[in-house]
Amino acid sequence: MPIEILMPALSPTMEKGTLAKWLVSEGDTVASGDIIAEIETDKATMEVEAIDEGRVGKILISEGTEDVPVNDVIAILLEEGEDESALEGAGGGAKKDAAKDQEGAPKVEARKTEAPKSGSKSDDSDSGESKAPPAPETAEGERIFASPLARRLAQQAGLDLTAITGSGPKGRIIKADIDAAKEGGAPARADQPKAASADKAAPAEKAAAGPRAGAGAVDAPGFVPPADIPYDEVKLSGMRKVIAKRMTQSKSHVPHFYLTIDVSLEKLMAQRKDLNARLEGEGVKISVNDFIIRASALALKKVPAANAMFAGDKAYLFKRQDISVAVAIDGGLITPVIRDAGAKGLATISREMKDLATKARDGKLMPEDYQGGTFSISNLGMFGIREFGAVINPPQGAILAVGAGEKRAVVVDDAVAVKLMMSVTLAVDHRVLDGAIGAEFLAAFKGYIEDPMTMLL
Amino acid sequence: MSDTKFDLVVIGAGPGGYVAAIRAAQLGLKTAIIEREHLGGICLNWGCIPTKALLRTSEIKHYLDNASSFGLSVKEVGFDLKKVVERSRKVAGQLNAGVKGLLKKNKVTTIMGEARLKGKGKVSVKADGKTTELEAKNIILATGARARELPHLKADGKLVWTYKHAMTPETMPKSLLVVGSGAIGIEFASFYRDMGAEVTIVEMMDRIVPVEDAEVSAFAKKQFEKQGMKFILEASVEKIATKSDSVTATIKGKDGKSTDMTVDRVILAIGITGNVENLGLEEAGVKVDRGHVVADEWGHTGVDGIWAIGDISGPPWLAHKASHEGVIAVEKIAGIKGLHPMKKELIPGCTYSRPQIASVGLTEAAAKDAGHSVKVGKFPFIGNGKAIALGEPEGFIKTIFDAKSGELLGAHMIGAEVTELIQGYAVAKSLETTEAELMHTIFPHPTLSEMMHESVLDAYDRAIHY
């Protein structure tokens, strides 16, 4: 009997996802373990493995289809000796009906359909729905009190509990707080008149009117393209939507200010050359960016007040430096995290970064690879950008935007000299960090970059 | 009365009022409570408590009637109705005295008399023909409610009863008609049926205990019918005519035809209406809608300094709802920060019939109406070892979860002792647990509570014992 391949659940809470890509075509023979498709949710892309062997009889859901409900039949696999005629009555082309009409039967088939394999860790798939989101902690290991329901709702909505103020007993975060945060803003703002995103507002104002409008910009596109300009319509990926939502949230909620400083790369380049020569043959090549990650982490260690997170009526000052590094990938960007970067040497950082960037580009990052982080770095130097201001990645307190290293005419000892310089701009959440602290951080950062030997101390 | 100035005056000393007064005293408010009849209110004197005493009698009688199935032999089971009622009154009396002591211990000034609002911040109390005036920064109305009567359905206290008369019968009726199948109607029906009366229940809706989940209603009806009760659904009593020792009720059925039925006694259990009269509400500007005071989610009436809690401010008419509202209102008055208003879906409801019924949160239909996609679990008593050992293999526990978030939306139970089980789900709901925490909770074996676990497991197709 033909085997139905069902839309897998990538997580206990997943209800639907995008069938991003088919890696097999109708007629292809697949063996158990072959990767047959890629499924995308707003958080990750995962592969679907075949568990049975056979021939792909029919693909029912074409690639690129969004919002495919979990357990819908996405393809039919023919077993040995079966031909296309077996598709009839096997729900071929019947799509959803196949799953619905045979209550009971699909359950058995569902087990035959391999749950997504995602590297070595996929504990999500076997514990089923009973898995509770872990109790969140601050980076200091301090427990955040939140009801189980609030934890799960926050996880589903992509909200960071550390940024939410609880209104339950002793500040416990409860469902109402998550609902309020989803509506936009702190719980105290829940009673804010909804007119904030009044329809009368001009489109431009609307987009900037606040979190409510911001979320709407993703959920309910309001703009109609002009009729006389040809265009391509591009559907937003899950990642794109998350970026849109989070960046709107950040820009409309977090009071940013910017501090720019120029640093000399002269010594660093020399040091790098020397180090890489020594590392030759070990497969490690330290990049300028690796130096920047380490220097940032050490500067944060030196100025812990800059390693901060705003949390309503309190701030958290982290004692570990987890650096999120923006990596551009197809269709957007993602920020894998170098954990405890302040305690890691350049070679380790370099190796980890290379690994994370590869995973990121292949869409293989696991949530633990990109969630969290206490500080971000965004580097557009390789594109020749001289300097820029980045958008803070909430709930973090700051992000460092790194420009290109370039030769500039600078004044040294009252004479113009040619030096390899780089400008960096720190975007700071003014609710938790002030100019002086930002400046102190940048001074420390400059110190490490301009005299990289000090990074060894 | 020397002292006439208070921070808070509570009118009515039922489970809403006296709890509010004690909480206020704990918070340091100078508090007085005014009661016209009896401390503890209806709940303690003429409601929850004395009926539980009566139902205990009928329950034991039921066991004795079935003694042989437990291997016991009982020669003859009889009862002395006077003593049954006496016990019930004694229980009420004991608790009434207890409330008096609690108020005294907490230094709440207790005043027996009739209260009336007298302009801003003033309350007059009439007692023994004398009128005193009290000043209060805040006033809580907690006068409760009484049985609703309709123009054509009035109790005479002899043949046609309200709950109050039904609690102190002088003779055991051979036949009884109960009008209304809510908690009050069903409890009396259950008591009188177990005591040997022929019981017929008339209900306007298409199912009994209409506030409960439809599956519970259907199961309850089947169980009661097995015990010999009769139900006339989608019907109403058009009129009643009393003779010397019998009542003839004219019942209009769903086919529109009227039939007469003659019974010994009739119990009216057609809802309740708030005690809103003679309180000076209109002059004070307090709004009354369909027999109940209008108040916001904190119990505030909209008139400065005047609050209303419990039955007088609307359904559900439950003692624990009144108490909780009282505490919330008092804490609001005391200016405590971070309060949350009462969430109605967190108020459990219990009916002490045989079998018992208990629930909290949304019914399956209400959950679906509210737009939830649901996961429903159900576990029968027959799959539980303790239930079988108790000789109570009939009943079930049903749980309803939001499919997406795993929020426990509602729980519905029918069967032995379920009124003592429902608090587990009430705690779960209050703490906002999801199915995961309930699944990970270890329930002791052998207990009826294991069914609570299994019901949750069943919602996720993981039930073990069924």
UniProtKB/TrEMBL annotation, chain A:
Residues 85-141, 184-219 are annotated as: Disordered. PROSITE patterns: BIOTINYL_LIPOYL, LIPOYL, PSBD. Residues 2-78 form the Lipoyl-binding domain. The keyword Acetylation does not apply. GO terms for biological process: pyruvate decarboxylation to acetyl-CoA. Forms a 24-polypeptide structural core with octahedral symmetry. Belongs to the 2-oxoacid dehydrogenase family. This is Acetyltransferase component of pyruvate dehydrogenase complex.
UniProtKB/TrEMBL annotation, chain B:
FAD binds at K52, D311. Disulfide bonds join C43-C48. InterPro entries: Class-I_Pyr_Nuc-Dis_Oxidored (IPR050151), FAD/NAD-bd_sf (IPR036188), FAD/NAD-binding_dom (IPR023753), FAD/NAD-linked_Rdtase_dimer_sf (IPR016156), Lipoamide_DH (IPR006258), Pyr_nuc-diS_OxRdtase (IPR001100), Pyr_nucl-diS_OxRdtase_dimer (IPR004099), Pyr_OxRdtase_I_AS (IPR012999). Coiled coil: none annotated. It comes from the Bacteria. Residues 6-326 form the FAD/NAD(P)-binding domain. The keyword Flavoprotein applies. Its main location: cytoplasm. Binds 1 FAD per subunit. It catalyses: N(6)-[(R)-dihydrolipoyl]-L-lysyl-[protein] + NAD(+) = N(6)-[(R)-lipoyl]-L-lysyl-[protein] + NADH + H(+). Its EC number is 1.8.1.4. Its cofactor is FAD. NAD(+) binds at G180, S181, G182, A183, I184, G185, I186, E187, E203, G271. Residues 347-455 form the Pyridine nucleotide-disulphide oxidoreductase dimerisation domain. GO terms for biological process: 2-oxoglutarate metabolic process. GO terms for cellular component: cytoplasm. Transmembrane segments: none annotated. The active site is at H445 (proton acceptor). Pfam families: Pyr_redox_2 (PF07992), Pyr_redox_dim (PF02852). Keywords: Cytoplasm, Disulfide bond, FAD, Flavoprotein, NAD, Nucleotide-binding, Oxidoreductase, Redox-active center. PANTHER family: DIHYDROLIPOYL DEHYDROGENASE, DISULFIDE OXIDOREDUCTASE. The active site is a redox-active disulfide bond. Belongs to the class-I pyridine nucleotide-disulfide oxidoreductase family. This is Dihydrolipoyl dehydrogenase.
